[in-house]
Amino acid sequence: MRKILILIVALFMLTGCGGNKTYDEISYDELNKMLEDKQDFILFIGSDTCSACNTYKGTLNDVIEEYGTDVKYIDLASLSEAEESALVSKFPITGTPTTVFITNGKEEDTHNRIVGSAKKSKIIEEFKDNGYIEG
């Protein structure tokens, strides 16, 4: 009986530790709609097959959970060749992960990005500088 109880507790713990995404994964069409609607948002461009992206996701999720920030994620690996090409034309990137700050449906400044896997303090600083976290 004790072994069963320990097993059940262990399963609950493993299930609870599963990678809950706190960013919102969007499609290319959803991204275009947000841009057309001139929305303000944070766009995280990455790939589920990218190890640096997967490391960054954990740190980014910590920031999102702590500050309640909304971040949109687009997975390059899930896009068609045409969609990926069009995305890279809109947001020229040199690699992933790349986080872009969109204002009124446009990226105001490409120097304002988070490129590569960043530390939590860097993400918080950039989110504050861009008005997504108060402080």
Task: Provide a descriptive summary of the structure in words.
The protein has a single domain, classed as Glutaredoxin. The chain contains five helices and six strands. The protein has helices at residues 2-16, 28-36, 51-67, 81-90, 120-129; strands at residues 24-25, 41-46, 71-75, 98-103, 106-107, 114-115. The longest helix has 17 residues, at 51-67. The model is unreliable at 14-18 (pLDDT under 50).
Considering the chains and any ligands shown, give keywords for the structure:
single chain, 135 residues, alpha/beta, Glutaredoxin, 6-stranded mixed beta sheet, 5 helices, globular
SSE map:
Blueprint: H1 2-16, E1 24-25, H2 28-36, E2 41-46, H3 51-67, E3 71-75, H4 81-90, E4 98-103, E5 106-107, E6 114-115, H5 120-129
Parallel strand pairs: 1-3, 2-3
Antiparallel strand pairs: 2-4, 4-5, 4-6
How is the biggest beta sheet arranged?
Answer: 6 strands, mixed
Mean pLDDT: 89
Look up the CATH topology.
Glutaredoxin
Report low-confidence residues grouped into runs of 5 or more. Answer: 14-18
Structural Rg: 17 Å
Domain count: the total is: 1
CATH level-4 homologous superfamily: Glutaredoxin
User: Which outline best applies?
Assistant: globular
Indicate the structural class.
alpha/beta
Count of alpha and pi helical runs: 5
CATH class: Alpha Beta
Number of strands: 6
CATH architecture: 3-Layer(aba) Sandwich
H/E order of the elements? Answer: HEHEHEHEEEH
The percent range for strand residues is 15-25%
How far do the termini sit from each other?
A: 52 Å
Helix content: 40-55%
